[in-house]
Design a protein that fits this description.
Blueprint: H1 5-20, H2 23-43, H3 49-73, H4 76-90, H5 99-113, H6 121-132, H7 138-151
Helix pairs in contact: 1-2, 3-4, 5-6, 5-7, 6-7
């Protein structure tokens, strides 16, 4: 059965959502499980917690992008739906890091790799991605790294 404690939690929450009649929550949980299952079928593997977090992080990023586009279009009805889905997805992601914690990790990664220009950004991201996946917006992290390396 599931190798991932997070996947087990999702399955359990799906069952309790069915019993309680929480249709909106059930729909989001089913979407998360479907995304996980799709990767498992395509790659013929069982996902571990790290990969499940990566899938959920991607789903939350998609919701944030949708919210941004719907805000530009003035679609308040769709924004509410996306915000509600994002909140449910984030319940299953690790606790977000503070700005100070992210900056400290970036500084450590730059010092570890000895990166001094934007050309070496890949090395820094390689170290940071496993630590920050699901705990920080990687787009913002990327911008912070670029600004640090540009001023270095």
């Amino acid at each position: 059965m599931p190798d991932s404690a997070l996947k087990t939690q999702l399955l359990s929450d799906m069952k309790s959502s069915m019993k309680s009649g929480a249709k909106a929550r059930l729909l989001v949980i089913r979407n998360m499980l479907a995304a996980i299952k799709q990767i498992e079928v395509d790659e013929r593997i069982d996902l571990d917690d790290a990969r499940v977090v990566a899938v959920l992080d991607k789903m939350s990023k998609q919701r944030r992008e949708s919210i941004s586009q719907f805000t530009t279009a003035g679609r308040d009805d769709l924004i509410k739906i996306e915000v509600a889905e994002l909140e449910i997805i984030q319940e299953y992601l690790p606790e977000a890091l503070s700005e100070a914690e992210i900056e400290t990790l970036i500084d450590d990664a730059i010092n570890t790799t000895g990166a001094s220009s934007i050309k070496e950004m890949g090395k820094v991201m390689g170290i940071l991605k496993p630590k920050l996946q699901g705990r920080a917006d990687m787009g913002k992290v990327s911008q912070l790294i670029k600004s640090r390396l540009a001023s270095a």
